[in-house]
UniProtKB/TrEMBL annotation:
Gene3D superfamilies: Single-stranded right-handed beta-helix, Pectin lyase-like
Span of the signal peptide: 1-21
Name of the protein in its database record: Parallel beta-helix repeat-containing protein
Pfam families: Beta_helix
Region described as Disordered: spans on this chain: 365-400
Length: 400
């Protein structure tokens, strides 16, 4: 039998090539909506779009996605006319959605009342969180899930235009990751509004962090696979009225964040805080501290180093300092402590035209400068300001 080689090659190519990208539509309201949606996430292939119908989805189990290059797209995030994934009846204690694959785009849906975290991604490079809402609708409660938006151990992370309310740890949290942008988002009534933890190269800008316990946190903690957090820029944000009493479960590191904290930097290196509007934060608009808890990790560096604070607008602050001895210090200073509070450890330069209070605790490093520093002064040994984060063009294109 003769074989036509052109036909044979075409047949082999068809058999071995990935299927053409397709849209998988799943409707809300069906009794088996949970199973149908999870099935769609399992059957999706690279390039596919899983499209969530408008309406409220009543879900009892968490969802997972482990296929690369998949878009999960809803019909919007507003009550009544969008896609709302309601986990109020969730049976387990896990997250609402777990993503463990690369090049995933999540957009235009809401996740409500998960028992655990709202949306978590782990080891998911080039992930985009866009126009999402994660909320615990009863407001701040210790029993709420810990994190709203929660990417960890990833490279190239974009969080754009999300809203998170009610997380008992952090509303928007990025941990142990590299190359991160968090922008144009709102975090309110969480313990920590936005938290960047043990990360390298992050830009946090044009966000609103309000009515949290602490607005924006930049931490580095011991005993984690990635340490030495550095190169973080916090700029052009509104960080105001972070007045919610701390409702984190006891034992969590954020349970120690004083109510009324604006921006808090702990044990990080090369952090720039500039161009922000900081107001009505009862403890301080900006706090810079070392890690002052017991630890056994010999590689850990507990001091803040090369922290630069400049050209921020400060409103009222320090009128209700919620740390031991804070009320007494405020009374002695006429009712308010200065807007910038430093524990005295490590090295920091503050160029805002406001008062700075150093507590002069042990490990005091370089004193703050009252003169306008040069770029070299701001960065310690570095000669240039931080350049900022550039994400792959493919990620930016998805949110245009």
């Amino acid at each position: 039998m003769q074989v036509h080689w052109v036909t044979f090659i075409a047949a082999v190519a068809a058999a071995t090539s990935p299927a053409a990208a397709k849209t998988i539509s799943v409707a809300a309201g069906a009794p088996d909506a949970n199973e149908k949606l999870q099935e769609a996430l399992i059957l999706a292939e690279p390039g596919d779009v899983v499209e969530l119908g408008a309406g409220t989805w009543t879900l009892t189990d968490g969802l997972s996605l482990d296929v690369d290059n998949v878009t999960l797209r809803g019909a919007g995030t507003k009550d009544g006319d969008g896609t709302i994934l309601d986990f109020s009846g969730q049976q387990g204690a896990g997250e609402g959605l777990l993503v463990t694959s690369d090049d995933v785009y999540l957009t235009n849906f809401a996740v409500l009342n998960t028992k655990g975290d709202g949306i978590k991604s782990k080891g998911a490079d080039r992930i985009v969180y866009h126009q999402l809402r994660v909320e615990w609708t009863a407001g701040p409660k210790e029993t709420n899930g810990a994190y709203g938006i929660y990417p960890v151990e990833s490279r190239d992370v974009l969080i754009d235009s999300v809203y998170v309310r009610g997380a008992s740890d952090a509303g928007i949290y990025v941990g142990q990751s590299k190359n991160i942008v968090v922008r144009d988002s709102i975090a309110m009534e969480n313990v920590a509004g936005i938290e960047i933890e043990n990360c390298y190269d992050a830009d946090v800008h044009d966000n609103i962090a309000t009515k949290n316990t602490g607005g924006i946190l930049v931490f580095d903690l011991p005993s984690l696979p990635q340490q030495g957090g550095h190169n973080v820029r916090v700029f052009d944000n509104v960080v105001s009225d972070n007045s919610t009493p701390n409702f984190a479960p006891k034992g969590n590191i954020v349970a120690s964040v004083p109510t009324g904290t604006g921006v808090l930097v702990m044990a990080n290196s090369r952090v720039e805080i500039f161009g922000n509007l900081l107001a009505d934060n009862g403890t301080a608009n900006v706090m810079i501290v070392g890690y002052r808890y017991p630890y056994e990790d010999e590689k850990y560096q507990p001091l803040p180093k090369d922290i630069a604070v400049w050209d921020n607008q400060h409103g009222n602050a320090g009128f209700a300092p919620a740390f031991p001895g804070g009320a007494e210090i405020a009374a002695a200073m006429g009712g308010n402590i200065p807007p910038v509070l430093w524990d005295g450890a490590g090295s920091a330069i503050v160029n805002d035209e406001v008062g700075v209070l150093s507590l002069n605790l042990p490990d005091v490093g370089t004193p703050q400068s009252e003169a306008k520093p040069s770029p070299a002064d701001l960065k310690g040994d570095a000669s240039e300001p931080l350049a900022g984060v550039t994400l792959p063009a493919s990620m930016e294109a998805r949110v245009q």
